Amino acid sequence: MTDIPLRDSLHSLLALALALASAPSELCGQHQPSTWLVVAPGLGGSAAQGPRYEGSAIWEARVGVGLRFRTPVELEAAIDVIHSWGHGPFGCELNPTQCPAHSNLAGASLELLLNPRSVGKLAPFRASVGVGAYRVGNDMPYPDPPPKVTALGLQIGLEYTMWRWSHVALYLGARALLIPRANGESLWLFPVGLGGRVY
């Protein structure tokens, strides 16, 4: 697989975000879009399809910004760091060449959020779909770990707004992130966590 430079991938996502943000006035209405900041730590698990990686527990840190227009669709761009817990199955220290790796990801994503209540209100439940560019590495201290690669990721999510006061909202969210091809293998990650948005 050809390694895609992370900088070029991030530039492409930024260009797409700017293009969507500069949509025509008839799409967004005659009102200026509102913005927000999101911070969302989380925990979860991962799974892998192939011999070079294995599933593990994960933690996630996410920081992003968003745009809301007078339409049911909102735009959110985020920086994600997803890290594995653990150091491989029992016995890897004795035979490290046969041990699969735990994947660690860092990158950027762009998501579309569906908010049915588009005019001045937030729906309790919101769904999202997005795409991202991620640097896939690992921290396994073994002789032959998989090389680091940059890969595209596809994700879907669902969140529930638990509490809102003035310009602050607290939500519970879950996402499924698929890396279709990292060193010839597929990776699935499932972070779940509490997030906060400041509008």
* Count of domains: 1
Shape: elongated
Number of strands: 9
Total DSSP helices: 2
Task: Note the run of SSEs as H and E.
Answer: HHEEEEEEEEE
CATH topology: Porin
Calculate Rg over CA atoms: 19 Å
Considering DSSP H and I runs of 4 or more, what fraction of the residues is helical?
A: 10-25%
- Average of per-residue pLDDT values: 80
Describe this structure in words.
The protein has 199 residues and is mainly beta. It has a single domain, classed as Porin, CATH 2.40.160.20. 10% of the residues lie in helices and 54% in strands. Strands 1, 2, 3, 4, 5, 6, 7, 8 and 9 form a nine-stranded antiparallel β-sheet that branches. The longest helix is centred in the N-terminal third of the chain and has 16 residues. The protein is elongated, with a radius of gyration of 19 Å. The relative contact order is 0.22. About 4% of the residues have low confidence.
Provide a compact summary of the structure.
This protein has one domain: Porin (Beta Barrel), CATH 2.40.160. The chain is built from 2 helices and 9 strands, in the order H-H-E-E-E-E-E-E-E-E-E. Helix content is 10%, strand content 54%.
